[in-house]
């Protein structure tokens, strides 16, 4: 699966969802992982200038909260 579509696919048909970083990475192709900035910098999830956030925004989702300590991200349908 195209790595940019992993999150929108996991979110499909759910208005709100919590995903762990591990759940996201498990669906990424060729043993890809999230960028290190995604695990250490919460603004990575809310920046509108990169391909990952553009992908879930295109499907109507926004990041509601990022928990870097426990490695979870919370999405909400706009």
Average pLDDT score: 89
Which strand order do you get reading across the main beta sheet?
1-3-2
Distance between the termini: 25 Å
- How large a portion of the residues is in β-strands, by DSSP E? 15-25%
Residue stretches low in confidence (pLDDT < 50, at least 5 long) are none
- The whole-angstrom Rg is 11 Å
Query: What is the number of E strands?
Result: 3
How would you sum up the global shape? globular
Count of the separate structural domains: 1
Structural class: alpha+beta
**Biggest sheet details:** 3 strands, antiparallel
Helix content: 25-40%
Per DSSP, the total helix count is: 5
Order of helices and strands: HEHHHHEE
Descriptive notes:
The mean pLDDT is 89. A hairpin with a 4-residue loop joins strand 2 (61-67) and strand 3. The chain has one domain. A 3-stranded antiparallel beta sheet has the order 1-3-2. The protein is α+β, with helices and mostly antiparallel strands and 78 residues long. It is 38% helix and 23% strand.
């Amino acid at each position: 699966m195209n790595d940019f579509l992993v999150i929108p696919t996991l979110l499909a048909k759910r208005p709100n969802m919590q995903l762990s970083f591990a759940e996201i990475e498990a669906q990424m192709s060729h043993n890809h992982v999230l960028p290190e900035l995604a695990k250490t910098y919460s603004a990575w999830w809310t920046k509108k200038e990169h391909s990952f956030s553009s992908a879930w925004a295109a499907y109507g989702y926004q990041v509601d909260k990022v928990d870097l300590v426990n490695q979870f991200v919370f999405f909400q349908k706009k």
